[in-house]
Amino acid sequence: xxxxxxxxxxxxxxxxxxxxxxxxxxxxxxxxxxxxxxxxxxxxxxxxxxxxxxxxxxxxxxxxxxxxxxxxxxxxxxxxxxxxxxxxxxxxxxxxxxxxxxxxxxxxxxxxxxxxxxxxxxxxxxxxxxxxxxxxxxxxxxxxxxxxxxxxxxxxxxxxxxxxxxxxxxxxxxxxxxxxxxxxxxxxxxxxxxxxxxxxxxxxxxxxxxxxxxxxxxxxxxxxxxxxxxxxxxxxxxxxxxxxxxxxxxxxxxxxxxxxxxxxxxxxxxxxxxxxxxxxxxxxxxxxxxxxxxxxxxxxxxxxxxxxxxxxxxxxxxxxxxxxxxxxxxxxxxxxxxxxxxxxxxxxxxxxxxxxxxxxxxxxxxxxxxxxxxxxxxxxxxxxxxxxxxxxxxxxxxxxxxxxxxxxxxxxxxxxxxxxxxxxxxxxxxxxxxxxxxxxxxxxxxxxxxxxxxxxxxxxxxxxxxxxxxxxxxxxxxxxxxxxxxxxxxxxxxxxxxxxxxxxxxxxxxxxxxxxxxxxxxxxxxxxxxxxxxxxxxxxxxxxxxxxxxxxxxxxxxxxx
Length: 561
Prior knowledge:
The protein is α+β, with helices and mostly antiparallel strands. It folds into 3 domains: 8-181, Formiminotransferase, N-terminal subdomain (Formiminotransferase-cyclodeaminase, Chain B, domain 1, 2-Layer Sandwich), CATH 3.30.990.10; 186-349, Formiminotransferase, C-terminal subdomain (Alpha-Beta Plaits); 352-560, Up-down Bundle (Four Helix Bundle (Hemerythrin (Met), subunit A)). It contains 17 helices and 13 strands. It starts with 7 loop residues before the first strand and ends with a helix.
């Protein structure tokens, strides 16, 4: 399995306790003990006797936190005496994992299986896999697995078709648990300039997947041959919606649950609702997000609305988010704070401070200090960032140049590529320093007996290979940015030709600088086949970059004549 330490998933376990706050606190304390995990919400319900907990983090830490929470729930919750209005089958009734960024649903399934296996084998709690992780088609639906509830599971578990995926003996105290992978659910409301719930419902029925009951010529509900009502499907897949009136705001809303933002993006929901409202003589005046949202949803929305304006989409995250918020009126009813509403931004508080988050002055002083890191590798990576940034700037200015309106998409594509280069190069500014720290940590390992010496050498070699790969990746990206600089010097806004030229100079500094890092770190591993290949490619890029920089330089000068 590839490294998912930078990925983010959400976990939303439902525990069968909503009245005893001490028990709930014991469970959530276990989650908060895991470094790198952030507890976002705890929502207890007395009538349901159930608590929904939400936390996020990288997949490795999340499944560890989930396991410890399930373990604590098993210790404190006795299902033999549990009552509540909500269907349930165990102390931890259901535990879904939701991919947020840097990981797919299919990849998240492997983590769900690891968690379920531990629950079954270490806690002796029967565990079923559902949704994307389901081991059979008939097991995908949570309601089907939970049918019969806790009281019926002692018998249900003995049926061959309902044999648990892990842990095969009924646990009388803890019941059974369902673990799986599902899509992120976005709770979203669209505001209308009306107070009529009926009219809001009409729009909701237009857009929701379920649609509305069909009426015959006499206005009565049409039925099929079996006497069942015939339904006319709505416009949007994976959308559930109803209309209601919010007295606090004095407006009617379409209340929406979006269960798959990849199949039906958030901006499509808003625009479709706005279109159907207009057909019925209303306006969508804004909208609101209930709870948190993945960054991707807002970035896609920002790009969508910029494309509708025929403007470059190759702008930074903050601008894309601003466009999305403004276009969908997400701040109409209350201020929209990205740091509190976007999952990835909420997670930033759990990570260490980054070099790239420092002011330029602080970064310079940090570099000039008495420690060897940050050093040449991080500085070279930042030179690469600046090179890509200048190329991106020229692309964006070219997309908006008067008289070049027909070429906006051409330059928007260039700007998008530049933004992608910038994003990874910014990551490498810090990762170069992290790679150095990994080497130092490996050198600090004990070297007493032969086994310790062997383990220490293996750790040093692995850390050194990584410290070679990081500047090499910087080289590759900076080398790619020459193409952007060349295109902008040759075809971009001629008033910005000098900026493209400076961008090429920055790219050259990045390639040359990281070449030195690769050579330095590779000295002790010259017989390593992977390192040999990296060195060979590094030599090629180093030899070629002078000519590429000069080519861009000449093109820039030609534009100035």
